[in-house]
Amino acid sequence: MISKLAIPSLCLLMLIGFSAPAFAEDNPSTIEITGGAAVMAPPTTVTISFAVETDSPKAQAAVKENAERTEKVLAALKKVSDKDTKLRTTGFALSPVYEKTERVVGYRVRNTVLLESKDLDNTGTFIDEAADAGATRIGNLSFSSDKEEDLRKEAGLEALKLAMRDAEALAKASGMRVKRILKITYDSREHPTILMREAAPAAARTPIAVGEIPVQVELRVVFEMN
Questions:
Q1: Class for domain 3-42+147-191+212-225, per CATH?
Q2: Is residue 164 within 8 Å of residue 226, measured between CB atoms?
Q3: Could you tell me if 54 and 62 are in contact, meaning their C-beta atoms sit under 8 angstroms apart?
Q4: Cβ–Cβ under 8 Å, residues 223 and 174
Q5: Could you tell me which CATH number the domain at 45-144 has?
Q6: Which residues, given as ranges, of the chain have pLDDT below 50?
Q7: Cα gap 24→5, rounded to integer Å
Q8: Could you tell me if 90 and 74 are in contact, meaning their C-beta atoms sit under 8 angstroms apart?
Q9: Beta bridge partners of 213
Q10: What is residue 196's DSSP assignment?
Q11: Apex 97 CA angle, 95 and 102, nearest 5
């Protein structure tokens, strides 16, 4: 079920300029409204990144050990994934490790894998299985919806209605009326990403409560007054 959440206007800025009648069209009185609205909707996709880090005195040994541990993490994730879950490597880095004297004492390899799944009920299981298999960092957990484009449009229309309502109220209070819209600036804000901790296998399973996600739009609208 999709629900709407109206967000109070963040800023009401009235820009009223008075001029002689001969220049009224060149210098119209204007009012600028900044406000927004959000549409709440259940997510359809979860995205999580898993990183495997290994250190070794030799670069080749670090790469080999990392490859083996990454394969274990991938195998564990595939075991609990459905056929539509996507797994792909999004980053690989090999870097030297220095001691205080700036002498190279070893090498560190980091391999990052991204999981995208519509199996939201398995979110906690993905995290636990990856941690048990050797993932050293788990982060960037976020939920998204396949209908976000439509939701942004819906939130944008709601934000515009609110801006027009505020503009009309202020215009009436100042003895004027809204003539037309001169400019609309549109700002769509993504729902927040949940950052996770470093992986640490534990007896207790990771609980993940999947709620609704906000799709928020902010508008800055300039109205012409007369």
A1: alpha beta
A2: no
A3: yes
A4: no
A5: 3.30.70.2970
A6: 7-24, 197, 200-202
A7: 39
A8: no
A9: 41
A10: P
A11: 120
Burial label, 205 (beta-carbon count in 10 A; 0-12, 13-18, 19+) = exposed
| pLDDT tens digit sequence for 40-96 | 999 999 999 999 999 999 999 999 999 999 999 999 999 999 999 999 999 999 999
Where are the domains positioned within the chain? Answer: 3-42+147-191+212-225, 45-144
Do residues 43 and 210 lie in contact, with contact meaning Cβ atoms separated by under 8 Å?
A: yes
- Those residues whose C-beta lies under 8 Å from the C-beta of residue 28, and which sit 6 or more positions away, are 17, 179, 182, 224, 225, 226
**What pLDDT does residue 192 have?**
58
Residue corresponding to tokens 């999709």: 2
- Beta-strand runs (E) in 42-171: 45-56, 86-98, 104-117, 137-144
Instruction: Give the residue carrying structure tokens 């927040």.
Output: 192
Q: Give the C-alpha separation, 106 to 92, whole Å.
A: 17
Tokens describing residue 139: 């982060």
Residues forming a β-bridge with 219: 35, 186
Tokens at 179, concatenated:
């003539």
Contacts of 40 (CB under 8 A, 6+ apart): 2, 3, 4, 5, 212, 213, 214, 215
Residue with tokens 């994730």: 77
- Which two structure tokens, joined as six digits, stand for 183? 């400019």
| Residue partners of 145: CB distance under 8 A and separation at least 6 | 41, 42, 43, 44, 45, 151, 213, 215
